[in-house]
Amino acid sequence: MSKKLFNAWLKISIIMTDKLPDTSPVDCPRCGKNSVDMQYVGDPDTRVGYLDVWCSSCLHGIHISRVKVPLNDNLFTFETSNEQITKRILNFKQETP
């Protein structure tokens, strides 16, 4: 089940990044609620960083490292305080393969 959920989260990540800057709701592959959110953290010059995608309802999600951050998306830099990042990115349980 875990690998299936991990793959579902990967698909959700692709769907969400493909529809940027559209912010219409996406259904969570775990609980089915449309409360999935995402945030990039990375280097503003190279636009390389990581992506967290999570469900605000069930607090599950995925962390993807070494991603290219699109120019049209909001980016927290690596210099952003941990306090600000944890206010934005909820403490979710990561799905793993």
Summarize the structure.
It contains 2 helices and 5 strands. By secondary structure, it is α/β, with parallel strands linked by helices. The protein starts with a helix and ends with a strand.
Please explain how this structure is put together:
This protein has 97 residues and is α/β, with parallel strands linked by helices. The chain has one domain. The protein has 2 helices and 5 strands. The protein has a 5-stranded mixed sheet, covered by helices on one side. It is globular, with a radius of gyration of 13 Å. The protein starts with a helix and ends with a strand. 20% of the residues are buried. The mean pLDDT is 91.
Label the structural class: alpha/beta
Beta-strand content estimate: 25-35%
Unreliable stretches: none
Radius of gyration based on Cα positions: 13 Å
Would you spell out the secondary-structure blueprint of this structure?
Elements: H1 2-18, E1 36-42, E2 48-55, E3 60-68, E4 75-77, H2 82-88, E5 93-94
Parallel strand pairs: 1-4, 3-5
Antiparallel strand pairs: 1-2, 2-3
Which features characterize this protein?
about 100 residues; five-stranded mixed sheet; globular
